[in-house]
Design brief:
By secondary structure, the protein is mostly beta strands. It contains 4 helices and 10 strands, in the order ββββαβββββαβαα. Strands 1, 2, 3, 4, 5, 6, 7, 8, 9 and 10 form a 10-stranded mixed beta sheet that branches. A hairpin with a 2-residue loop joins strand 2 (24-31) and strand 3 (34-39). The longest helix has 7 residues, at 129-135.
C-alpha cells in the first residue's frame, strides 16, 4: 500500500452532507492501520485567542479555530509548518515540513514556525476505510501545497484545488452548491 501522507483528500459532490461536504482534508498520517487528517477549509466562528490565548499570535489569517473533523471535537490539535531542517520544542514531524504542535508545551518563538492552524477535532479512518471511500468515488486524492493548508481564504479552497486538477476532475469545481437549483 502506498501512503497518502501529505496529500489532500477533496470531497466529491457525492458527499452531500455532514462534516465532509465540500471539504479538503490534509492527511497527516496514513498506513496499514488507517489514516488521520484535518479538514483545512472549515473555519469556525471561534477565535483562537478565546480558546488558546497564548497561541493566538502564531496562527495565520484567518485567526480562528478550524473544524478539523468529527473525531474528538472537544480537543484541540495544532498543525504547523516549519522552516526546512527546523524542529522546535514540542513539534512532532508528520509529513514534509508539517507536523503537530504540543499545545500543552512551551510556546515557540514566532520565527520557529512559518504558519500554524488550530483544529477542533480531526478526521480519522480505520484500516481500509479510506481506501474504500476513495474507490466508491467519495474522494479525489491530490498533491498538497503549503498554501493549501495555510490559505487565508479557506472558503475558496475546495473549488481552487479542483480547478487545478487535470482532465474532467477540474469540472467538479463548477458543481452548483444546490444541484436542485441547476
Amino acid at each position: 500500500m502506498d501512503s497518502m501522507r501529505g496529500r489532500l483528500l477533496v470531497a466529491t459532490p457525492s458527499v452531500e452532507s455532514g462534516p465532509f461536504r465540500r471539504s479538503v482534508v490534509f492527511l497527516l498520517d496514513h498506513d496499514e492501520d488507517g489514516a488521520l487528517g484535518v479538514i483545512v477549509n472549515h473555519p469556525t466562528h471561534a477565535d483562537v485567542d478565546d480558546v488558546l490565548p497564548s497561541w493566538s499570535a502564531l496562527v495565520g489569517a484567518p485567526d480562528c479555530l478550524f473544524e478539523g473533523g468529527p473525531v474528538s471535537m472537544d480537543s484541540a490539535l495544532a498543525v504547523a509548518v516549519v522552516p526546512a531542517g527546523s524542529s522546535p520544542a514540542g513539534f512532532r514531524p508528520m509529513t514534509g515540513r508539517f507536523g503537530l504542535v504540543d499545545l500543552d508545551g512551551p510556546v515557540p518563538d514566532a520565527t520557529e514556525l512559518l504558519g500554524m492552524r488550530v483544529f477542533a477535532g480531526y478526521a480519522g479512518w480505520s484500516a481500509g476505510q479510506l481506501e474504500d471511500e476513495i474507490a466508491e468515488g467519495s474522494w479525489l486524492v491530490t498533491e498538497a501545497r503549503d498554501e493549501d493548508v495555510l490559505t487565508p481564504q479557506p472558503e475558496n479552497l475546495w473549488r481552487s484545488v479542483l480547478r487545478r486538477q487535470e482532465g474532467d476532475a477540474r469540472f467538479l469545481a463548477t458543481f452548483p452548491d444546490d444541484p436542485t437549483e441547476n
